[in-house]
Amino acid sequence: MGNFNFTSNAAAQKLNVQVEGSMSPEDAGRFIQEYNQIVSTFDPAQYEIILDCKTLNVSSPDTLPMLEQCYILYKESGFKKVTFIIAKSPVLKMQLSRVARATKLENYEIIEA
Asked: How many CB atoms lie within 10 A of CB 41?
């Protein structure tokens, strides 16, 4: 079961998102619903979204389409920058990079912490 938490920081113009565990289709649906509610309260073009994925598990093949949908949301929302913070995991880094390329998300950075 996956878990997530959104924290908006208007002063710093950042949306911090903590994502952990393994996301199920139900988790992804809740994530997208909450994401849309939060993002509707500010102008994403003025914000950076920072996704803390240090405790996120590598996605299984059946959940990759949901991950791609999230990337498309970040792109369509128009964030200034999309930053993924991950634990040192070559597999997760490769997976996130591959999804970014597949969805044509260009303004992203992956930081291993």
From this structure: 9
Residue with tokens 């079961």: 1
Q: What is the number of other CB atoms lying within 10 angstroms of the CB of residue 111? A: 12
Q: pLDDT tens, 55-76?
A: 998 888 888 898 899 999 999 9
Superfamily of domain 3-112: STAS domain (3.30.750.24)
Instruction: Give ∠ CA 55-17-70 in degrees, rounded to 5.
Output: 90
Ranges assigned E (strand) in 57-105: 81-86
Domain boundaries, the chain: 3-112
Residue 104 is classified by DSSP as T
- Give the pLDDT of residue 26: 87
Structure-token pair, residue 60:
């299984």
pTM, two decimal places: 0.93
Cβ contacts of 64 within 8 Å, gap of 6 or more? 99
Q: Supply the mean pLDDT for the chain.
A: 94
Place of tokens 């997760």: 92
* Position 90 pLDDT exceeds 80: yes
